[in-house]
Amino acid sequence: MRELFQRATILKRMATVEVALLYALSKIGLVREEDILVVQKNIDKINISRVEELEKKLGHDVMALTVHLAELSGESGKFIHFGATSYDIVDTANILIFRDAINIIKKKLKNIIIILMEYAKKYQELVMIGRTHGQHALPITLGFKFANYVYEFTRSLERLNDTSKRLLKIKMAGAVGTMAGWKDKGLEIEKYVSEYLGLPPHEISTQIAPRDGYAELVSDLAILASQLDRFALEIRELMRPEILELAEGSAESRVGSSTMPHKENPVTAEKISGLAKVLRGFVISELENIPLWHERDLTNSSSERIILSHSFLIIDEMLESMEALLRNLRVYPENMRKNLELTKGLIMAESLMINLTLANVPRHIAHELVMKVSREAEREGKSLLEAALDNEEIVKILGKEKIIEALNPYNYLGEYKELISRALSYAKNVIEQT
Fold first, then answer.
1. Rounded distance between C-alpha atoms, residue 159 and residue 307, angstroms
2. How far apart are CA 319 and CA 224, in angstroms?
3. Which active-site residues does the annotation give?
């Protein structure tokens, strides 16, 4: 990923677009095929120092490259950049880089989804407490928790697939987008550039490719970053010593604190969360690049030199960190069992209420009765099972055996297996189509 956004790579991709234009010009009879080969060979001879020297003199980065390429190519370079505007080159070169960068992201994201799918299957039956508002809610399984992340990350993979259809298009339309510089051959030239680069063209554009595509891309990456942040936050919370159900991998030799030798911190998860903040911040800046003056202005250029490369580099680092975190994840089943029992069965109050309602007690009455019994259990330090069995009204309605069955958390997991299976099937289909 770093290599894709190096100065040398960017210049080579821009030069490749110039060669694609020469190929198109040869198809309409303006350039000889041997001239294309000369310019193409000179791409590897591009001297960054010379380009920078020319840019200082000319005050224009694309013109500096085209002049340098023409210098290297001699007579064969006289039609370089003919009829084009700078952003025909810049935007199309960006798309060539984006195509490769998105493929890197998708490959790493698929690896993460596959690991999570394996965990969802492996821990399908490992019961733990589900939490809402940071409080104990109802029992779930660890596999169910992982399957939710499988689903969310797969949606990001699907999102990148969809965005690519709108984003990965060449822009070859000249100044203000009318193709006037090529007279009546503009559409032909666009077609041949498209053919050479293996990408379709935008149906219409101004002097630049529409920036809603760039904003959509950065938004997609920021959404993915926020999903990674959500998982990282889960690890950070569940790694607390008083919870310790999941934890980052071995930290035997890693210093957790310069002064507290015992510390073992979720630093990888915290790094993921920290980088997500930066990437989310880029979304606003790229949205601001959609409204430009008339057929274009230059206010997008300076910010995009930061936003585009850094968005990809940040998400790439986050995905690398996420995979490392997953492969070294520690699971503590004994703590899950301990935490499941922490409230002495109060997490099963809904199940008791449901069973009372099914036994012909109006739901609102059942809710009031179970809430009363739950508060009583808390106040007296009893389990909900003990309090329910001590309540004559509940015993009369349900019987002791039904109460014991209703308050067993392992009996109250709903359609968890089918839901996990459905999430994994969805992920499998999207991965196969990607």
1. 20
2. 9
3. 133, 257
The mean per-residue pLDDT over the stretch 288-299 comes to: 96
Tokens of 237: 């919370």
Report d(CA 187, CA 34) in Å as an integer. 24
Length of the chain: 434
> In the prediction, which pLDDT does 264 show?
82
Give dist(CA 239, CA 395) in Å, integer: 40
Three-class SS state of 23:
helix
Place of tokens 């990607």: 434
208, 175 contact by CB (below 8 A): no
Reduced to 3 states (helix: H, G, I; strand: E, B; else coil), residue 256 is coil
Rounded to whole angstroms, the Cα distance separating 188 from 33 reads 17
Residues in Cβ contact with 5 at an 8 Å cutoff, skipping those fewer than 6 apart: 97, 101, 308, 309, 312, 313
The answer to whether residue 251 scores a pLDDT higher than 60 is no
Reduce the DSSP state of residue 291 to 3 states and report it: coil
Counting Cα atoms < 13 Å in the Cβ hemisphere of 409 gives 26
Q: How far apart are CA 349 and CA 333, in angstroms?
A: 23
Rg (CA), the chain: 30
Q: For residue 201, what is the DSSP state?
A: B
pLDDT averaged over every residue in the chain: 96
Burial class of residue 135 in the structure, from the number of CB atoms within 10 Å of its CB (0-12 exposed, 13-18 middle, 19+ buried): exposed
Amino acid at 91: D
What is the rounded distance in angstroms from the CA atom of residue 10 to the CA atom of residue 289?
21
